[in-house]
Specification:
The complex is a heterodimer of chains A (326) and B (497). Chain A is built from 14 helices and 2 strands; from the N terminus they run ααααααβααααβαααα. Chain A has 326 residues and is an all-alpha fold. Chain A has a single domain, classed as ABC transporter involved in vitamin B12 uptake, BtuC (Orthogonal Bundle). Chain A is globular. In chain B, strands 6-7-8-3-9-10 form a 6-stranded mixed beta sheet, with helices on both faces. Chain B has a 6-stranded mixed beta sheet with strand order 15-16-17-13-18-19, with helices on both faces. A 4-stranded antiparallel beta sheet of chain B has the order 2-1-4-5, covered by helices on one side. With 497 residues, chain B is an alpha/beta fold. The longest helix of chain B has 16 residues, at 176-191. Chain B is globular, with a radius of gyration of 23 Å. The chains are: A mainly alpha (326), B alpha/beta (497). Chain A binds chain B through residues 171, 174-177, 179-181, 183-184, 187-188, 190-192, 194-197, 314, 317-320, 322-323, and chain B through 52-53, 71-75, 85, 88-94, 98, 101-103, 105-106, 112-116, 269, 309-312, 314, 322, 324-325, 348, 398. Bound molecules: adenosine-5'-triphosphate and magnesium ion (MG). The site of adenosine-5'-triphosphate has 22 residues of chain B, from strand 2, helix 1 and helix 15.
């Protein structure tokens, strides 16, 4: 009973926020009032959540990594093509994508350690390099797989991928020392270092882990759509930002619950926003703006939550509000 | 007797700064060794080298008869040397149990995976053993006071059951209660033939706690005095390299201040920490506020600066402006020197100049522009007035010794010509020489008609400097002493307990 109560308390925020957002959508757009829509939102949240889980490691470690989008691309194209050439089936695609993604992340980690340049710069360079490599390898045609590979867009493939990703993320973050070291380094680099944590190594490992999830996301992508085309001129930035936004929303609704589940809900909310833009026929030029506004709104709420609570507490005590009256 | 730790000819350079040159020291089992010296003399550098935070540039260490080269704090802890660092050592944003097992989350367990439940349980036990049962392992450490956070570090240091415990300047930041706990730990260590290296600027404390004392000056080893040769005057002159002239606190014993009330707090209520506290501060007055750490005095100081808003009551400046935020306070030229300098008042990753001039741009702007030259001049002038020991004003504040950081925290407010000073433990971690300087500075400010509130845990300082002392106990004013009545320490402490 006690445990159940705690559970409810921890997850109520993210659940209610997500439910409220979806209810809002369904209220204003009658066309979306169906179980199918709901199901498809939940389904479409899976892939971006997986990438978001990887991005979380970077954010917690204090890394700015704009390279994950390009890592997705290179993992999909190289990993996908290799698996296809060797005829390894979908399992091969998943493994190859993850290996390539992990390697791609590790390269940026190694560069970071060798060059001692901030991750934000390394990651932009990495992004450009990976995008160009993708334009060259396999004739610059990207990757395309035949129908037999397309099993990751629906049940049970998608759910299995979700579970696999969640387990990896959960274990790395909560069950191994690396997760704790990442949190320590991201929260206070000096104290972490003074306590014997290898800061450079930890930050580099976070980059590798993000690469691993980029690979997983790449696998889900090729295993759903069958094709990934090359992108250039920082075109992969969009993928990266989308994942970051899922994380930001996740962080703002996490409450006392599990952050990886919160990020998944964040991804669902993101999908919902995009769907709303579609049904209301808002041109794509504006959709980025709307998404940005939503993210800011979430952040605003979460960063000010303690203050809002403090004000409520003070009101109960009958204190004055001079700064609100102004 | 067999030595426990032997430090031989250690040197340490930080770039161009020579922090230690050729220092040797031997510590024996059951010995409590004091380590003393002015700010920047190398005490923390030496203890950090012994504890594995820094690597020595040159020299050798022997521990338990074998060569000793710690790789990190974790390594030295494992080998039997624990450090209580001078600066905050817990990470805000992480839980108590995560901090307790920082860097050794899997230690003591059988598996290579972290078992959070086991860590929480262990943390609970460790806390309970150290009389800290009120701290919850799952809570963010941020929720706890400076003192509680320090005590979490103490618990972390002792549960490893070290052969040598190094205590760097921890006690001056603690309340009476916290100090007693540390003295008790020291007694236990001694009884079990273990050793303590104890750093403090409080000579009385050194005399009481230590069996012997090693003096450092400018990174050089000066001397080690056995207990029978320890006396305050000798130690002082060894530290500063000349006779100490003994002038310290205010020489007069009268209340001298103007009539004008410059700051007024009326019926302040805050959570259950402060229950209806009122006070008036006059121009040219030094108002001391004393009490135990949890008496609410630190919070009161923050409320006076507008950094926390009280639930009830108000703080007003002499022109009737209500102080509702640090911005309003600073507009009225009110300065606040917090107790926790690292997190609340200094930009550790910025240089000394930027820290000093951070709130003084109004003073140095010419036709709306800031010129680097005037920034530089202001910073140099102010830093020189408190003798900040530094390479130049371009040095990062994070590289300074603890006491010198504190000086920079004070310089910041001298630079912007503040009129009213709220000082929370202003001389924490400052050596005797500079302490005397700060006291002189306070008298100088007083002479100029500026008002000072000094919250302090040091009785002698409160009595020595204040025109008036207010004592807080459990969030209420429990006593008031006037300077002319010449209160004794005993009388003051009685009101606190
Ligand atoms: N990381 C660093 N980089 C550069 N210089 C440093 C660093 N750490 C310490 N120093 C310098 O080494 C000298 C000795 O500093 P240390 O911290 O050992 O002094 P301390 O005796 O502990 O002083 P305090 O009483 O103020 O704590 C100082 O001049 C300081 O500026
Ligand atoms: Mg020091």
């Amino acid at each position: 009973m006690q445990a159940a109560k705690k559970y409810v308390k921890n997850y109520i925020v993210m659940f209610l926020v997500t439910a409220a957002m979806i209810a809002l959508l369904m209220f204003f757009a009658p066309a979306t009032r169906s179980f199918t829509t709901l199901l498809s939102l939940l389904k479409q949240g899976i892939a971006p959540a997986i990438l978001g889980w990887g991005v979380l490691f970077n954010i917690k470690a204090g890394n700015w990594d704009f390279g994950v989008g390009a890592e997705v691309l290179i993992a999909a194209i190289i990993g996908g093509n290799i698996a296809k050439m060797l005829g390894m089936g979908i399992a091969g695609v998943i493994v190859c994508c993850m290996v390539v993604g992990f390697a791609a992340g590790t390269v940026s980690g190694i560069l970071y350690r060798l060059l001692r340049i901030p991750t934000i710069i390394i990651s932009i360079a990495i992004m450009l390099i990976y995008e160009s490599i993708c334009g060259i390898v396999f004739g610059g045609k990207g990757v395309s797989l035949d129908l037999s590979y397309l099993v990751l867009s629906h049940f049970p493939g998608n759910v299995l991928m979700w579970i696999a990703g969640f387990l990896i993320a959960y274990i790395l973050f909560f069950k191994t020392r690396i997760g704790y070291n990442i949190k320590a380094v991201g929260s206070n680099i000096k104290i972490a270092e003074d306590n014997g944590i290898n800061v450079k190594r930890t930050k580099a490992l976070a980059l590798s882990i993000a690469g691993l999830f980029a690979g997983l996301y790449a696998a889900v992508n090729v295993g759903s759509s069958g094709a990934v085309r090359t992108v250039s001129a920082m075109g992969t930035m969009g993928t990266c930002f989308n994942a970051m936004m899922c994380v930001f929303i996740g962080l703002s609704i996490v409450g006392g619950g599990n952050i990886f589940i919160a990020i998944y809900f964040g991804a669902v909310v993101m999908q919902m926003i995009q769907m709303a833009l579609m049904v209301f026929g808002i041109p794509t030029q504006y959709s980025q703006v709307v998404v940005a506004i939503f993210v800011i709104a979430f952040m605003l709420f979460s960063t000010n939550a303690p203050e809002i609570r403090e004000n409520i507490r003070r009101k109960r005590h009958g204190g004055s509000f001079p700064h609100l009256a102004q | 007797m067999e030595a426990l730790l032997k430090v031989e000819n250690i040197s340490k350079e930080f770039g161009a700064t020579k922090a230690l040159s050729d220092v040797s020291m031997t510590v024996y089992p059951g010995e409590v060794r004091g380590l003393i010296g002015e700010n920047g003399s190398g005490k923390s550098t030496l203890s950090n080298i012994i504890a594995g935070i820094h690597k020595m540039s040159d020299g050798k260490m022997m521990f338990l008869g074998a060569e000793y080269r710690p790789e990190s704090v974790l390594d030295s802890r494992k080998k039997g040397i624990s450090l209580l660092a001078q600066e905050t050592g817990t990470i805000a944003g992480m839980t108590v149990y995560e901090n307790m097992f920082l860097g050794e989350e899997t230690a003591g367990g059988k598996s290579r995976f972290v078992n959070a439940r086991r860590l929480k349980k262990a943390t609970k036990e460790i806390l309970a053993e150290n009389g800290l049962a009120h701290i919850q392992p799952e809570d963010n450490v941020e929720r706890y006071s400076f003192e509680d956070r320090k005590m979490i570090e103490v618990a972390r240091a002792v549960w490893h059951d070290p052969q040598i415990l190094i205590i760097d300047e921890t006690t001056t930041a603690l309340s009476h209660h916290g100090r007693q706990k540390i003295y008790e730990i020291i007694r236990q260590m001694k009884k079990n033939q273990k050793s303590v290296i104890f750093i403090s600027h409080d000579l009385d404390e050194i005399m009481n706690v230590c069996d012997s004392v090693t003096v450092l000056r400018d990174g050089n080893y000066i001397d080690t005095l056995p207990h029978d040769r320890m006396n305050k005057d000798t130690i002082r002159s060894l530290m500063i390299g000349r006779e100490f002239d003994g002038r310290y606190y205010r020489p007069d014993w009268v209340c001298t201040h103007g009539e004008q009330v410059v700051l007024k707090a009326e019926h302040i209520v805050y959570r259950n920490i402060l229950k209806d506290v009122s006070l008036e501060l006059h121009e040219g007055e030094i108002l001391g506020i004393g009490g135990l750490t949890d008496s609410g005095m630190h919070e009161l100081c923050k409320i006076l600066f507008g950094a926390i808003r009280p639930d009830k009551g108000r703080v007003t400046y002499m022109d009737n402006t209500e102080i509702t935020s640090p911005q309003t306070a600073m507009k009225k030229r009110i300065a606040y020197i917090p107790k926790d300098r690292d997190t609340e008042s200094l930009f550790i990753f910025a240089d000394i100049k930027d820290n000093i001039v951070a709130s003084s741009y109004d003073q140095i702007k010419k036709q709306g522009f800031i010129f680097p030259k005037s920034e530089h001049e202001l910073a140099e002038k102010t830093a020189a007035s408190l003798q900040v020991k530094m390479r130049d004003v371009r040095q990062y504040v994070g590289e300074l010794s603890g006491g010198n950081k504190q000086k920079v925290a004070i310089c910041k407010w001298l630079a912007n010509e503040s009129q009213l000073f709220l000082m929370d433990c202003p001389t924490r971690g400052i050596d005797v020489g500079v302490k005397a300087n700060i006291y002189l500075l306070m008298q100088e400010l007083k002479k100029q008609g500026k008002a000072i509130i000094m919250v302090s845990e040091e009785m002698t300082e409160l009595i020595g400097m204040s025109d008036r002392i207010l004592i807080l106990k459990d969030g209420e004013c429990s006593g008031e002493f006037l300077r002319q009545d010449h209160p004794s320490e005993q009388e003051v402490i009685q009101k606190m307990l």
